Amino acid sequence: MTAGTPADGPDQVPPPDPAALAGRERLAEQVARTGMFGVSDTPDTSGYGGLKVRRPPPLSSQPPYGSYFDDVADALGASLEQSGLSFGDAVERVVTQYGDLTFHVRREHLPAVAGRLRDDPALAFELCTGVSGVHYLADEGRELHAVYHLLSITHNRRLRLEVSAPDADPHIPSVVDVYPTCDWHERETWDFFGIIFDGHPALTRIEMPDDWKGHPQRKDYPLGGIPVEYRGATVPPPDERRSYE
Amino acid sequence: MTAQADSPAGAPGAAEEAEEGRVYTVGGQDWDEVVAAADDAGDRPGAERLIVNMGPQHPSTHGVLRLILTLDGETVTELRPVVGYLHTGIEKNMEFRNWMQGVTFCTRMDYLAPLFNETAYCLAVERMLGIEAAIPERASIIRVMMMELNRISSHLVAIGTFGLELGATTVFLYGLREREKVLDLFELITGLRMNHAYIRPGGVSQDLPSGALERLREFLGVMPGQLGEIRALLDANPVYLARTKNIAHLDLAGCMALGVTGPILRATGLPWDLRKSQPYCGYESYEFDVPVRDTCDVYGRYIVRMDEMDQSLRIIEQCVDRLAGGRPADDPVMIRDAKIGWPAQLALGPDGLGNSPDHIKHIMGQSMEALIHHFKLVTEGFRVPAGQVYAAVESPRGELGCHLVSDGGTRPYRAHFRDPSFANLQSVSVMCEGGMIADVISAVASIDPLMGGVDR
């Protein structure tokens, strides 16, 4: 029954409308960006200029996670107990989304967690299929993320580890000792994002020239490019074009 | 090629004295001089050690790969691969284009297997959109067929260039001649021989043209014989066997540690193929085998690739049968969701492929709303819900993974590709160190690295 119908009586407090509550919650969320068009220095008459895009709070899934995810979480918890570490200490957040399981691991515990994941027969994540960096510019205090994609051939399962570090202290322990394949992947992530992997045998640039300044895939690093002129008309470089976001 | 003989810095009388040692520039027939000079320096410490720089422009390094070899006589004691010469910032560029445009960028990474790049990317986008179940059956069949054709063309280049590097020019010519047949099919179906941007989020860009199925059947008829010709040349060729058997050994434990997948992994006896273990695009409904060898050497990888081409032909045949079997009138190749699938039906005009005249007539003359919709979808694109996803396909070189992060906007917040060449190339040091310098060529060719994929 909706609020405000006569049957409720005049003295009863109408129950809050869930839609209105959801709307209020949404308005309280942090503003991720304003405006729908990327260009701010030209008068925009489209009417979209004042729109605010809000960012939802970080996801955190509660057990049961479904699929094989509970088995993995339980096995990892049991395995970590043996080395005197609790699941909650090592993993700050579990996210299940789009059929993937992600453990957000506290960076100091990453090598221990990775070691257990590889060596425990109940987990057996033998293969690491790489490290991928992500730069969340607006996520203050945890701007830099390193994402590890693990694969268990024994159990035919996938798992993702996510570790974050602040821009001011971009250090994450290396997992090269556990997964030697991460050697190049971590070099790539250092090269593109400036995450320093402590304990990596030779953390040097891999894709960019050795004397390159900056880390090109960070969000505060411009794309670059030059305007292209053709028959008198000029097309600006991609990051300066009007963007219809 | 530059050869560099180690000698203490500051040795008298050398014009080309570098900090690290004496540098010789070798331009062809003057190898004797270098060896003689290295012999002269015999009483100096470390004089036996010869550092040879191979690449980045060297015919047998598969693109711009640079190898720094430390030699003791003809034995490789240390090998360091250097990559990055072909880095083009594709991942960064994708962050500045909408989700649909992303296809045209990622197709250029591993340019011998463009359709796999496109599929990995599209599967990731579709998972985030939650439209996996809504992809039309016909689109999935075409995707599988195109990928298997692409697997054949990619393996043919791998084996052809491999033959060339070992001195067998005929194999190279055979390989590229057969690949041409696949490229002709690609040109017929997608309009392009490479960089197709054919597979799009939601389906494929256009249906098969008329006559394509006949051409495919023709291809299926001649191809087994042509592959047999290559096998007749190589399979039992004593020279080829001597250059490939027990060369560049990498066992299962090594593959696991170094993240090696694809034919190299299957040549160690593990039948790991994502098409079987984690099927996508309906691969579970096709009949095919996963070829395996347990020799862990270059020859095993070659045989696995040859057998895989036979299996690909089997899959293509099943695809053609399904595509030919009575098509319902309303069977689309693009998702029916008008917010994602582009409205334009492409048609071939006198100036090439473009929007069909009917569609232009509709948006320009009949419906303002259709025009607005077309404009919004093409300029702004569709939104993808926030979150991240990792989708993987079995490319000819191994697991090709696509990690996408969305912030809920019309462009990827981050796109990362786990290219199998990148991961597999790390193993070249392990394969080569302790072996002969001549076997380095075999080892690199058996990894089949594609520098466009390595450097992205």
How would you sum up this structure, described in words?
The complex is a heterodimer of chains A (245) and B (456). Chain A is α+β, with helices and mostly antiparallel strands and 245 residues long. Helix content of chain A is 21%, strand content 24%. Chain B is built from 18 helices and twelve strands. Chain B has helices spanning 31-40, 90-94, 102-106, 114-129, 137-165, 169-190, 212-234, 238-244, 252-258, 263-266, 274-277, 298-324, 357-366, 368-380, 420-425, 428-432, 437-447, 451-455; strands at 2-5, 22-25, 49-54, 66-72, 75-82, 199-200, 203-204, 346-349, 352-355, 387-395, 398-406, 414-418. Mean pLDDT of chain B is 84; it is low at 1-18. Classes of the chains: A alpha+beta (245), B alpha+beta (456). Chains A and B meet through strand 5, strand 6 and helix 5 of A and helix 2, helix 9, helix 14, strand 10 and strand 11 of B.
Supply database-style keywords.
heterodimer; A: 245 residues; alpha+beta; 11 strands; 24% strand; flat; B: 456 residues; 5-stranded antiparallel sheet; 3-stranded antiparallel sheet; globular
Itemize the secondary structure elements and their pairings:
The complex is a heterodimer of chains A (245) and B (456).
Chain A: H1 18-28, E1 31-34, E2 52-54, H2 69-82, H3 87-90, E3 91-97, E4 100-105, H4 110-119, E5 127-135, E6 144-152, E7 157-165, E8 171-173, H5 182-193, E9 196-198, E10 228-230, E11 233-235
Parallel strand pairs in A: 4-7, 8-9
Antiparallel strand pairs in A: 1-2, 3-4, 5-6, 6-7, 10-11
Chain B: E1 2-5, E2 22-25, H1 31-40, E3 49-54, E4 66-72, E5 75-82, H2 90-94, H3 102-106, H4 114-129, H5 137-165, H6 169-190, E6 199-200, E7 203-204, H7 212-234, H8 238-244, H9 252-258, H10 263-266, H11 274-277, H12 298-324, E8 346-349, E9 352-355, H13 357-366, H14 368-380, E10 387-395, E11 398-406, E12 414-418, H15 420-425, H16 428-432, H17 437-447, H18 451-455
Antiparallel strand pairs in B: 1-2, 1-3, 3-4, 4-5, 6-7, 8-9, 10-11, 11-12
Helix pairs in contact in B: 4-5, 5-6, 5-12, 5-17, 6-7, 7-12, 12-17, 13-14
